[in-house]
Amino acid sequence: MYHEEANLNSGTLAIGRRLIDGVLERLGADSAWLMAGEAFNRGGRFVLLLLLARAVGAESFGGWVIAIATATILANAGDAGLALIVTRDIAADRTVTRRYLANLITIAPVLALVLFGLLAAMSPLSPPGISPLLLFVIGVSGILESTAYLLLAPLRAHGRSRPEGLLRAFLGTALLIAGGAALFVSQGRTDAIAPMFPLIAAVALALAAFAMVRSFGMIRPQFDAALVRRLFGAALPVFASTIVFFVYFRVDIFLLAYLRGEEATGLYGAAYNFAFGLAFLPLMLGRAVLPRFAACKTAVTLRATYFRSAVITGLLAGGLSILLAVAAPLFLSLYGSGFAGAQTPYLILVVAQGLFFFTHLNYMLIFARGRMRTGWALTLVALAVNLTANFLLIPPMGPSGAALAMVLSEATLLAAQLPIIRSLLGSASDAGTAVAGDQESAARAA
Fold first, then answer.
1. Strand, helix or coil at 269?
2. Residue 274 is assigned to a structural domain of this protein
């Protein structure tokens, strides 16, 4: 009996290993590590925000929504677009790794100091009723996170995303444990949670620096003016596009605060947190496929890589949308009856997150093939649609209007991307030589 049970367990484990290996083979180990790490990151933050929402109610939750939105923008745009450029260039030519790193560790602290100054100057301009101190403290965590991700960009370019995956898992898990404990000990005083964000982000930055040193050894900081100029020149359109993208993606929160008040912002924030709680899936898939897109030298390999990624994206988007729609009745059970007004915008946002899967994948192809200005222009068009729709729909419809504006702008963005994607998939060799040409020019300038 014991041997039969042992054989059964062994067979079950073997099947499990084959399934896991199959998933890893299709997604790639780098994608799997990033997705798993971000699952813990987003999951921890989702539960913490849920606890906050239940503790303070819809109106007071609006301030936290604004602060978290600001930190998210800083965490993703605080590297000035350099992380994407560094990832792309090193993936195309790994011999430049140490040279890039030597300049990166010189640039990163300067960027962080500039962002600290901007955040300190802008915090007093927060919407009415929103604490400037809360906005600043949570914003600092976004700056520290952006610096950590910038230091990890060379590892991602080498296909070694395990450190970043573990770092993301640490961030979400530590925030949930520390924030939940602070909320419990302080008996619902949410101001006790705020200092946890920059503290944990500082630890994450130290871990990122350790991972970089462990992978590439000690590197002496350098300032190669020619290389830095080229990097910032290439990163500027990415940075502009990222800023416009996050303004486009989060402007609804700020407009709701100004046009409809904190309660509408809190309701929409709860709906957004629930509908986009798994937005890490397209984000992490995009981060993983970008180096692959950049490394493709022919139209055949680029098309094959893109279509494989598109199939996985479609499966994830369709499955998640169905799951979120089925989970709609759980919304009030989780958030409480005070958030009843968030159910309709939640269902509308489920459609928006499905569209986001595809628009983000297309962005990664556009950026990987050197079309930075094209990406910026596309996001600018989407922002114009989003702003117009928000100004028209928020006053009469409140949170539901903001959600509908997101669907309209994402659909417009996808439609505008499609002809560009068709063009890129037919001219991979030209795009690949453009990236190589950038690196050759930088070598001459140096």
1. helix
2. yes
Which tokens sit at 129? 């009723």
Measure the N-to-C terminal CA separation of the chain; round to a whole number of Å. Answer: 72
* Lookup result for tokens 């002809």: 419
Q: Does residue 57 sit within a domain? A: yes
Whether the Cβ atoms of residue 166 and residue 221 lie closer than 8 Å to each other: no
Per-residue pLDDT band for 38 (boundaries 50, 70, 90) equals confident
How many C-beta atoms lie closer than 10 Å to residue 2's C-beta? Answer: 6
**Range 322-341 burial, b when 16+ CB lie within 10 A, else e:** eebeeeeeebeeebeebbeb
Assess whether pLDDT exceeds 50 at residue 307: yes
Residues 55-74 have pLDDT tens digits of: 777 777 877 888 888 888 88
Tokens 């060379």 sit on residue: 154
Within a domain: 445: no
Residue 354 has pLDDT above 60, yes or no: yes
Among candidate residues 214, 197, 194, 205, the one with its CA nearest the CA of residue 167: 205
Distance CA(71)–CA(73), nearest Å, equals 5
Domain containing 356 equals: 30-434
- Euclidean distance between CA atoms 437 and 426, whole angstroms: 19
Q: Is the pLDDT of residue 430 over 80?
A: no
Q: Which of 415, 361, 363 is nearest to 385 (CA)?
A: 415
* 8 located within any domain: no
CA atoms within 13 Å, Cβ hemisphere of 237 = 17
Q: Which of 347, 301, 305 is CA-nearest to residue 326? A: 347
Per-residue pLDDT, 28? 54
SS3 category, 389:
helix
Residue 270 exposed, middle or buried by CB count within 10 Å (0-12, 13-18, 19+): buried
Q: Span 231-259, mean pLDDT?
A: 79
362 has a pLDDT exceeding 70: yes
Give how many domains the chain has, as a whole number: 1
> Quick one: average pLDDT of 331-341?
79
